[in-house]
Design a protein that fits this description.
The complex is a heterodimer. Chain A folds into 5 domains: 71 residues, no CATH class; 194 residues, no CATH class; 211 residues, no CATH class; 171 residues, no CATH class; 192 residues, no CATH class. Chain A is built from 29 helices and 22 strands. Chain B is an alpha+beta fold. Helices cover 55% and strands 18% of the residues of chain B. Chain B has 4 helices and 5 strands, in the order βαβαβαββα. In chain B, the strands form 2 sheets. A 3-stranded antiparallel sheet of chain B has the order 2-5-4. In chain B, strands 1-3 form a two-stranded parallel ribbon. Classes of the chains: A alpha+beta, B alpha+beta. At the A-B interface, helix 1, helix 2 and helix 4 of A face helix 2, helix 3 and strand 5 of B.
Chain lengths: 886, 113
């Protein structure tokens, strides 16, 4: 306390330095005068009394110094003075400082952004009670194949028998619904949870409560904060109000914290109802009594004091017990778990790989930036050697000089860090704005939080100091003799490999790696653009509805859709209108394993095939060629099931035999093939050709309703987006309560399917370009420094008869040598690293010959261009001037 | 002439405080002289160190200072103990007594038996 008070007073005294100084001088003066008087009173002469008084006082200057040191904070004063001095130096070399700060800002911005992504997907715990004791449980099969969901009986056995958990809760992860508060009904996804969900998750609530344990059928709903704001304008009195969810009445009992969207932190769900209501809201979920349909996600709260290892051991015992009791369904099952909200085990490898690749790249960018700035500082230090030598000669300590240069680089690092963090705010908001082309809501938002801030701060300080250490060390030990003679003081005779050349080699080598990877992704984007998706993208409008969640029976659904189809088809400007379940390139689809009927089990070929519902005219509307056979038309809902398959299906399931009239079976349903259609990309752009079986919508809605609703595909004459309003009106004319979603043109839909290649190409392209610019600036800096320090040598060469061309070649050769060495290091590294990128490339090999042959010469050209200016300068050296000493 | 001792580290502050406690308000010169007198001129006080010590005590809030006029009509800076300073003297004195007492036990001969 007292120390703090003293510290503050000293801090204040810093500001009134002069007044205190005068004050103390007056005090000393009065002290001496009194001493003199006393001496005179004792009989001494005035002169003798003053002499003795001064002797007793000791050195007045020393006293003043001691007093000053005690009065203020000398180290702080020194530091402030050094910082001011550094700021002045930095301001004087404005362009160098700007380049340095910008380089570091780009490096740190890139790192902070990627770290935000890592933080989002791997570090940040969900906002649910104590995150460490909340586990997400999965069912593994046959030695750990992750990650199956739970069946209801399996969950309830676990719930009743597991002793390691204080609570285990299950939920259906995605329940589609339409909710309207005030305005137009909106399509949202929610979760149906066991009544103990909120107690297990320990979710903080904005308003109200969770569900009461045991009341599995209560007609109650907990809203997400976003939905509450959007549809109910954040009404504080909403508790107890009844709202309609897909036409059913629910009472609002709570609003959950805005940060929570789902326990896995991936899905974006916005309401929660007790599991007993599931059958009202969605008919496609399996009956709870079935033990072999896995459809529930499960979380468990560890009992206090129970470790994860103990829980794991108990779960293993339970799995064995369940397998004994239910050999048919539970044989070979095991339980797996991870902390809820962290990356699921099954995805961990890909995720880790992707994030590691990104981190490596951004760290490379930062390393290049640091090397670059270090080089600039070197060149600057070279220009200040005279200054340094003079200060050393005047008695400044090396440590003082080093400290001062470190302060300079730390300042650059710090300012760069602040700027970089600002950049990362922008980058993350751009990233959060990207929409995945998935039909279910996925939360990809990435934000800068305190972890990111701490990370960037640490990174900027570390890089600031790292980039200053080498220049500070060298610059603070100039060769005094040389300096006073006006010669180069940093040159160490006999040292041909300088630290600077090493830095530049490292920098170019890293650029080779970056550029190769960038080249790969750009090539991948280009080849993705050339992918034949197999259907038309122009003049098509998509719009989805889900009559089923509004309580429509399957018959009514089919009727509704066919009336709607007719009415829209009759609109002016519409060429044709058809209905499907999910438009292609939506990342997911219904799929089953298919085989040909009648063949022997031994030579039967099975293949997973996607299933797509269509109405007559689908192929013509979509521009998919019908290769042989006929389109749907005239079949009845209860008649024999018909199907049209694509070529890939013919190749994989029927081994290329003529398919017309053959029968195939998938998931116990028999189909007769009546036609063959051209191949299309079914789920994603990057996929291998997938078998697709088109079935009649009319024949499928009853047994196998679409989970994701139904999509109208409307072919227009002219601009597709212009007709959207009219189509909406037609839908609401039939049923004003229906929520309309995914309204977009096919062109927009397909362009969002380019999400991944575009994201990768953008990210790597940006980083690659930044790295390349930084490296060429660095090379330029080194070469111009080298030329300026060899001026005299060049002058002598020219005086001895060297021609400008020879001198130019001399400099270029030096630059080219550095570049070539760097390439010999960087190229193999890039070759090895490119394997990491393999799973994110479209249509090209990781060891793409084009990229790996084009990048080196391009880089060499750029490097030579960077050396060209210094080389020109060397060639124009005037020998007379260079040889004349000042 | 008795041999003069340098002031031990840390004891000067206590001497200053104690002197101010017994003598009331004093200026720096008077304080220096008084300390030397009390020690029977056996202490060699470096005046240069007295003032930083006073400053430290002032910064810590144990003494306060103001400019005034001395008995000889000279302008001088006067120091006096604050309330916190009074408490401090008592505490420091007690601590010091305890320390010397312990040390005395070590130094006095023939008592370990």
């Amino acid at each position: 306390m007292r120390t703090l008070r003293a510290f503050l007073l000293r801090l204040v005294d810093l500001l009134r330095e002069q007044r205190s100084e005068d004050d103390f001088a007056a005090e000393l003066e009065s002290h001496i005068e009194m001493d003199v008087e006393e001496g005179m009173r004792a009989g001494l002469s005035a002169v003798e009394a003053r002499r003795q008084a001064l002797i007793r006082m000791g050195s007045a200057e020393q006293a003043r110094q001691l007093h000053r040191e005690r009065r203020t904070l000398p180290w702080l004063e020194l530091l402030a003075r050094d910082i001011l001095y550094s700021l002045r130096t930095l301001a004087r070399n404005r362009s160098v400082t700007a380049i340095a700060v910008l380089s570091i800002a780009l490096g740190i911005g890139a790192n902070a952004t990627i770290f935000s992504v890592i933080n989002r997907f791997a570090l940040r715990p969900p906002p649910m009670g104590d995150p460490a004791s909340l586990l997400a449980l999965h069912v593994g099969h046959d030695g750990g194949q992750c990650c199956n969901s739970f069946s209801f009986p399996l969950y309830s056995d676990l719930h009743d028998q597991a002793k390691s958990f204080s609570g285990v809760s299950a939920f259906a992860e995605l329940v589609p619904a339409s909710i309207a508060g005030g305005g137009e009904p909106e399509r949202v996804f929610g979760q149906a949870v066991t009544s103990n969900f909120f107690d297990v998750a320990e979710l903080p609530m904005v308003l109200g409560r969770g569900f009461i344990q045991g009341q599995e059928n209560a007609q109650e709903v907990v809203l997400g904060a976003g939905l509450w704001r959007r549809q109910f304008s954040a009404d504080k009195n909403i508790l107890g109000r009844t709202i309609k969810i897909s036409g059913h009445t629910f009472t609002v009992v709570g609003v959950v914290t805005p940060a929570f969207h789902s326990a896995d932190q991936i899905l974006y769900t916005e309401f929660w109802v007790p599991l007993g209501n599931l059958s009202q809201l969605a008919s496609s979920f399996p009956p709870p009594s079935s033990r072999d349909t896995h459809w529930l996600a499960v979380i468990g709260r560890l009992r206090p004091g129970v470790t994860r290892a103990q829980a794991g051991a108990e779960l293993q015992t339970l799995a064995q017990r369940f397998a004994l009791n239910n050999p048919k369904t539970d044989q070979g099952n095991s339980f797996l778990f991870e902390q809820a909200g962290s990356v699921q085990q099954g995805n961990r490898r890909v995720m880790t790989l992707f994030l590691t690749a990104l981190s490596v790249v951004v760290l490379l960018v930062l390393a290049i930036a640091c090397a670059n700035v270090a080089n600039l500082l070197f060149a600057q230090a070279a220009g200040r050697q005279r200054d340094m030598a003079v200060r050393l000669a005047l008695g400044a300590t090396r440590r003082r000089l080093q400290g001062q240069m470190l302060i300079e680089s730390a300042l650059i690092g710090f300012v760069g860090g602040v700027l970089g963090t600002a950049l990362s705010l922008w980058f993350t908001s751009v990233l959060s704005g990207l929409r995945l082309p998935a039909p279910v809501p996925i939360d990809l938002s990435v934000h800068v939080d305190w972890r990111v801030l701490v990370f960037s701060f640490a990174l900027s300080i570390i890089s600031g100091i790292l980039l200053g250490v080498a220049p500070a060390w060298t610059a603070s030990r100039p060769r005094l003799g040389n300096a006073l003679k006006g010669e180069d003081t940093l040159a160490r005779p006999g040292h041909r490999i300088t630290l600077r050349s090493l830095l530049v080699v490292a920098q170019i080598a890293m650029s080779v790696v970056l550029l190769c990877i960038t080249g790969l992704f750009l090539r991948s984007l280009k080849s993705a653009a050339n992918i034949d998706i197999g259907f038309r993208t122009n003049d098509l409008l998509l719009m989805s509805v889900d009559p089923r969640v509004h309580g429509y029976s399957s018959e009514r659904t089919v009727n509704f859709l066919s009336v709607l189809q007719q009415r829209i088809g009759a609109l002016p400007g519409v060429a044709s209108a058809v209905v499907t379940d999910v438009a292609p390139l939506s990342m997911g689809n219904r799929s089953d394993s298919f085989s040909v009927d009648g063949s022997e089990k031994s030579d039967r070929s099975e293949a997973i095939s996607d299933l797509t519902m269509t109405t007559p005219g689908y192929f013509e509307t979509m521009g998919i060629p019908l290769v042989s056979g006929r389109d749907f038309g005239g079949e009845t809902a209860t008649g024999p099931k018909l199907a049209i398959v694509n070529r890939a299906f013919v190749d994989k399931v029927l081994r290329g035999e003529n398919p017309i009239g053959r029968h195939v079976t998938g998931a116990g349903v028999h189909y007769e093939i009546i036609g063959v259609a051209g191949n299309t990309k079914s789920r994603t752009l990057g996929e291998e050709l997938r078998p697709v079986l088109y079935r009649s919508l009319q024949q499928s809605v009853a047994q196998d309703p679409s989970f994701l609703g139904y999509t109208l595909v409307i072919r227009t004459e002219g601009d597709a987006s212009g007709i959207a309003r009219a189509v909406r009106n037609e839908i609401h004319a039939l049923d004003p309560a229906l929520a309309i979603y995914n309204s977009e043109t096919m062109a927009e839909h397909v362009s969002s399917a380019y999400f991944l290649p575009r994201l990768a190409a953008t990210l790597f392209g940006t980083f690659g370009c930044i790295g390349l610019v930084l490296a060429s600036v660095g090379l330029y800096g080194v070469m111009s420094y080298s030329v300026s320090s060899r001026r005299r040598e060049i002058g002598i060469r020219m005086a001895m008869g060297a021609r400008p061309g020879t001198v130019e070649r001399l400099v270029l050769r030096q630059g080219a040598t550095l570049t070539l060495i760097a390439m010999m290091l960087g190229w193999p590294a890039a070759w090895m690293l490119s394997k990491l990128a393999a799973s994110f490339l479209y249509g090209i090999q990781p060891h793409d010959a084009f990229t790996f042959t084009v990048v080196p010469p391009v880089l060499l050209l750029i490097a030579l261009a960077a050396c060209w200016i210094p080389a020109r300068r060397a060639a124009t050296v005037d020998p007379m001037q260079a040889l004349r000493t000042e | 002439m008795p041999e003069k001792t340098d002031v031990w580290q840390g004891t000067l502050a206590l001497m200053v405080l104690r002197t101010l406690e017994s003598m009331g308000t004093m200026h720096g010169y008077g304080l220096a002289r008084r300390i030397e007198q009390i020690s029977g001129d056996r202490l060699q006080l470096n005046y240069g160190t007295l003032y930083p010590a006073l400053l430290k005590l002032e910064q810590e809030g144990f003494v306060r200072s103001r400019w005034g006029t001395s008995e000889n009509n000279r302008k001088a800076k006067f120091y006096e103990l604050t309330r916190a300073g009074q408490g401090r003297v008592r505490k420091a004195a007690a601590e010091w007594e305890k320390t010397t007492e312990i040390l005395a036990r070590f130094l006095s001969p023939g008592e370990e038996a």
